[in-house]
Amino acid sequence: MSAAFIATFLLFCLQTNPVGAEVAAPQNVTMVTLNTNYTLSWDWDQSAGSHAVTFTTEYVAKFNLKYKKKDPKWLVVCDKTSHHSCDLTHRNLNYLGIYMIRVCANVNGSHSDWVHMEFCPDKNAALGPPSKVNLTLAGSTLDVSIHDPLDSTNTSMKEKIPLLYYHIVYWEGSAHTQASGDQTLTTSANLVTLPDLKSWTSYCVSVQSRYEYYNKSSSFTSPLCMQTAGAIPWWVIFLSFLGSLIFFFTIVLLAIFGFMKIYKTIKTVFYPSNQLPPHLKEYLCDSPASDVPRLLASPDSESELLCDKVIICPVQVLEIHFPPPEALAAPPSGLEPDSSGRHSRQGSSGSGDSGVYSTGGSSGLRQPNSNQSGVSGQSMLSAETSWQGPFDSEQVKMRDMTPGLKRQPLITDEGIVDMCV
């Protein structure tokens, strides 16, 4: 009985003995930091146990461990996570505080031994480079504008590290020609003017954050390059002035040319060169000087009743045909001039009749002879109306159209000679 009791007791003790020592603990526990970003990371041997392993991370302020308490209150950050890291940034740890952090592995309800590490952000946290660096031209030199590193809440790290300063390195050339002869400058200001620079020369700048108390230094920023300026040569000023002058005159000429084209187009549209005749403007427009047409009135309007009818009658133009000079210069056949300038008719009758020939081509008309010289005015009128020739009808029409003209009496003097027109 005693042997069986001892065997049962030993089996019970083996079943109730904690198996924590049988689970492998995490290895290479480190803190990855930058300013106020803290991440705890570790390694674990996969061959030491099952693949279904989880990890638990806790922390406590170190001053709480100094009290004589058996069980200080540890704050859990990551509980049974499968990742090999735990982020403590959101815990807002005091930058000047000291904390104890521990982590263990969990397998099938059993956990490994705790791995502890001490962490002080002010001492152990890495310092980051400036958040931003700008270069501005200041004549023959350069101004360097430095923005402070930022913490996890986008606040300047100078609030946590008042002794933060910057180490500036600048050199002549390009970003890939950095040599041993670089110039350096140390400052805690955020705006720095680089001294002893050459005119019209390209310089590159890189900045580093430093904290001397714990000998912290950040990485350098990416190089920024810019060329300095200096006194502008006279030929550059002259060419700039000449170019601006040509550009200005070109713009003015183009503006004038465009204005003239638009003006001519508007003038052609609104003021055409072909205008209405004055006599049409008088009747079609409100006034002779206006181009606005008169409004048409209705057929029953009073203005149409006041207008008189216009009748257009054709007028026949009298045509006068003059004989050629040869016909006027030579006397008619059968007549011979006598000594007194009269034309005597030659014929079988042998009478002494004499006639006067008109200058209008009516040489065929015969005047009464000398024996009938005493004929009265009525005989003359009848003789006048009895003319025969190609212009008798036209002469009658002219007399009818101009009744106001006085008739000229016929000249019966036999002493009148023919005249040429």
Automatic annotation (TrEMBL):
Segments of this protein annotated with the region Disordered: 329-394
SMART domains: FN3
Cellular component, GO annotation: plasma membrane
Keyword terms of this UniProt record: Membrane, Signal, Transmembrane, Transmembrane helix
Pfam families: Interfer-bind, Tissue_fac
Signal peptide: 1-21
Biased composition, class Polar residues, residue ranges: 365-388
Keyword Signal: yes
Membrane-spanning parts: 232-257
Entry keyword Hydrolase: no
UniProt GO molecular function: interferon receptor activity
Residue ranges annotated for the Fibronectin type-III domain, each copy included: 129-231
PANTHER family in alphabetical order: INTERFERON ALPHA_BETA RECEPTOR 1 ISOFORM X1, INTERFERON/INTERLEUKIN RECEPTOR
Stated name of the protein: Fibronectin type-III domain-containing protein
Organism: Dicentrarchus labrax (European seabass)
